[in-house]
Specification:
Radius of gyration: 20 Å
Low-confidence stretches: 2-28
Strand order of the largest sheet: 1-3-2
Strand content: 5-15%
Number of helices: 13
Largest sheet: 3 strands, mixed
Shape: globular
Order of helices and strands: HHHHHHHEEEHHHHHH
């Protein structure tokens, strides 16, 4: 996915000496605990399909953090302040598969009101478990079939290109397994957002004593909490069933205390 393709010189000229500035068009009045997904992906698409200079300016002014995260951490194209970074970004996305991702995301996610409502409810319930928690600022983006969810500080980015459906042609072409593709659907966006956000609060153990089994155990506790917040068994396996039984027999145990347990008996 990182092969560079040539584009017309007219597209490249737009980027030469480009400045990262612009005005916001997606501002939404909302309550402090209401989650409304910001459509960074639409401004991104406008720039990457039309070489729109105004869109490029908006990416800087209104979406500076999102743009930096996408270019540096997701696409790994280089520092956002590099003089030719916008040229590299534009050229990179001339790949036919990436252009199709931009188009198909726009079609499938023209309306995200259902996800806004689901995320608002989910983060409100999560806040009852963690009273000091502030809901993140959530935005949508299009990557290059890399990371699904990106969490940085108080922001959470959803890569919609990873949620285009279990039978999406690019997923089949690039060899995603049936199990992976089953989770690359709209229905998994909210559970994944909760899971990755919880991992930002309770990171996987990375100390010298960490083992694969210990990290898996941590993930199962996170998935158990996601199930509780969602109100259904989105994630299911024997370990999660054991955690459910343990929690029922220890109702005084808080969710935070559960997550910190090294084992259950």
């Amino acid at each position: 996915m990182r092969k560079v393709y040539l584009v017309l010189l007219s597209l490249l000229v737009v980027c030469v000496g480009c400045q990262w500035q612009m005005t916001h068009t997606d501002a939404v009045e909302k309550r402090s605990d209401e989650v409304v997904i910001e459509r960074f992906d639409r401004v991104e698409r406008l720039y990457l399909t039309m070489a729109d200079f105004a869109a490029l300016q908006q990416l800087k002014t209104d979406y500076a953090v999102q743009t930096r995260t996408l270019l540096e951490n997701v696409l790994q194209l280089g520092p956002v302040n590099d003089p030719d970074i916008c040229t590299r970004w534009l050229v990179f996305f001339q790949d036919s598969t990436l252009q199709a991702l931009l188009r198909d995301v726009e079609q499938q996610y023209a309306d995200m009101d259902d996800l806004n409502k689901q995320l608002t409810g989910a983060f409100r319930r999560l806040a009852r478990l963690f009273p000091d928690m502030e809901p993140p600022r959530v935005y949508a983006q299009v990557g290059s079939l890399d990371q699904s969810i990106v969490v940085t500080d108080s922001m959470l980015g959803i890569s919609l290109d990873k949620y285009l459906g279990a039978d999406y042609s690019a997923y089949l072409r690039y060899g995603y397994s049936e199990r992976q593709r089953r989770m690359m659907t709209r229905e998994y966006i909210v559970p994944d957002c909760l899971g990755f956000y919880l991992l930002s609060l309770f990171p996987l153990p990375q100390d010298a004593d960490s083992t694969r089994a210990r990290q898996r155990w941590h993930m199962m506790k996170i998935q158990y909490v996601v199930n509780q917040v969602i109100g259904q068994r989105v994630f299911s396996n024997d370990t999660i069933s054991q955690i459910e039984k343990y929690r029922k027999s220890h109702p005084q145990l808080s969710v935070a205390e559960l997550i910190m347990l090294d084992s259950i008996r």
